[in-house]
Amino acid sequence: LALYFHSGEREEKCIIEDIPSDILVMGNYKVQRWDTHKQDFLESAPGLGMFVTVTSPSADVLLSKLYGPQGTFSFTSELSGEHIICLQSNSTRFVAFAGSKLRIHLDIRVGEHFLDESVVQAKDKVNEVNIRLEHIIEQIHHVTKEQNYEREREEKFRKTSEETNSNILWWAIVQTLILISVGIWQIKSLRDFFISKKLV
């Protein structure tokens, strides 16, 4: 997931990521500040910090840390489900003057383990192959966890659908019985009315 969004200073922005359990999540971000003279965003935002908070589906805080204007954060999910990732700039200016517009670039990668550049350029080819193989195995484990999580979600959705269909069926049967009962009651009432008026 790579995106950018605009925010005011000290304004909190959150995104929701649906993540399987026991998965490494890495996020890279960069903050740019709006320059009123150039009418454009500056390449960086010196003096600004970014407070990153990550909350699990059970409302546990997995990460709460202050970073610089550009940085990388990471956490490991404990439960499957929707994780809330919030970013808030930490302006040193007074609230009344902290109204600059910010552009925040955010790149979130789920389940990826990055190879060290020194490993990529390693002279020892056997070690390089071993490390690349371990990296591929980690990626396979990640794909397996993703598949298991999607299978769990599909099974939960199927059970919910079956319960809903069952409820609809019973409701239709109850409605039919009510309509038949009302119809019989109306016929009996009309018959009694005609008999009382000696029309039959």
From TrEMBL:
Keyword Transmembrane annotated: yes
TM regions (residue ranges): 168-187
Domain of life: Eukaryota
Chief location of this protein within or outside the cell: endoplasmic reticulum
Keyword Membrane belongs to the record: yes
GO cellular component terms, A-Z: endoplasmic reticulum membrane
Segments forming domain GOLD: 12-110
Record localization: Endoplasmic reticulum membrane; Membrane
Pfam families from the UniProt entry: EMP24_GP25L
InterPro entries in the cross-refs: Emp24-like, GOLD_dom
Keywords: Endoplasmic reticulum, Membrane, Signal, Transmembrane, Transmembrane helix
SMART domains the UniProt entry points to: EMP24_GP25L (SM01190)
Protein's membrane topology: Single-pass type I membrane protein
Family that this chain belongs to: Belongs to the EMP24/GP25L family.
Protein name: TMD11 protein
Organism for this UniProt entry: Indicator maculatus
Gene symbol of the encoding locus: Tmed11
